[in-house]
Amino acid sequence: MKKRKYLAVLSAAVIAISSLAACSVSSADDDSKSSESSGNTAASNTDYKYGKIDIPGKDGALCGAPIYIAYENGYFADEGFDVNLISADFETRKIGLNNGTIPIVNGDFQFFPSIENGINVKVVDGLHEGCIKFAVNPDSDISTVEDLKGKKIGVDEIGGTPHQVASLWLENAGISADPSDGEVTFLPYSDGNLEFEALANGEIDVAALWDPLGSIHEKAGDVKIIFDLGKDEYFADHFCCFLYASNKVLEENPDEVAALLRAYRKAQEWIYENPEEAVDIIINKNYASIEDKELAVDLVKSYGYPSAEEHSSDWDAHVETDVKYFVDGLAKIGYLESDPDQFAKDIYQKVDVN
Hints:
This protein is of the alpha/beta class. It is built from 17 helices and ten strands.
């Protein structure tokens, strides 16, 4: 019961943060970027089968590469979509998915408690591994999860993926992530650079950061990394991010979801074959703030984007297995109260992309 109370407070906090941010799902800048970008221009005179849709794809994370590449290489357009890439926080994504105005998003198991509480989406695919690191100052005596007891941890938002990852890491080590227990404190920062500054000046002890920021500062010697999502024993070789489709769209137009998945899979396969070229596009189009191409290529390679061969060999079974894996993990620490076996079956839907 205590965990459920914590989740209710957590959910309210996410809504409050979203309201304060006053995040718009679209803007003049969004539309300008869509019309100017090569992904849209290439098919500017095409009749789009599915019309114009919004896809969240402007958060600056390097691991959003499949979205950027599907857009820039025209895979969305080829599949019948006039895509507008938007900025959207967690709450905005949930609302858009519920009403079908946003047909698909990428996200981690942070969505699982929200699905249990009524958000109308299903997991339809896996996107990539890795992409989150926990950093401390170089002279910090923190080196293991056990050292985090009593510490302040910076995250991008309460309820977001770094917060959920940290919670699992802590709880699996016997440290409560519930703030009412006082064993750790989570502090949200809307910008990764602000979070890094807070770490440098001692406002927080640990910064949970999306790539590429943590890796950039690690290479510069500004931080040491105590946790790497792609290498940690519990998280390694499992999806960091899944693709979630709106139930409304799945029910009313399943062919639209299949077409979107084809575009994403084309992008994943192209990145697998062309990581250097993918990074060039990401850097040149300012999708992620990183100037070190060598580092960016290493990171993109580490995300485990699948080849065409992997997609054709039990790929859906791999996705379904990882959904169950994280459902079990969240249920174990009290973040889900549904029967894990049934819940895992309920939230995953295999889509025939052919």
